[in-house]
User: What shape does this take?
Amino acid sequence: MKSTRLPKALQDMRTAGIIEGWSYIVLLFVAMPLKYFADMPLAVRVTGMVHGILFILFMYTIYQAMNMAGLTQRQAIKVFIASIIPFGTFFLDNIVLKEYEQKS
Assistant: This one.
């Protein structure tokens, strides 16, 4: 990758994506097994609420990236789809950020 500095909106989207991605992994691979195998439904309730808030924050950063950094609708859709696939947000660099740096 080139050493092009990313706009703050894309940096924020990238950071929010990584945090949201980890919360999704914890929800799926820690909280859900605790709920179903250890009879601890509170794990999903708490983790699910935190993940939901982080997901909404991530969607907001996508919106901001569209308005402030020139993220296209097509790229935004790719990022959204990545956010609903486990481990998907960890590939944001390959989905959007490389395309941005190639344009610069």
About this structure: Helices lie at 8-37, 41-68, 73-84, 92-103. The CA atoms of residues 27 and 95 lie 24 Å apart. The first helix runs from residue 8 to 37. The chain has one domain: 8-103.
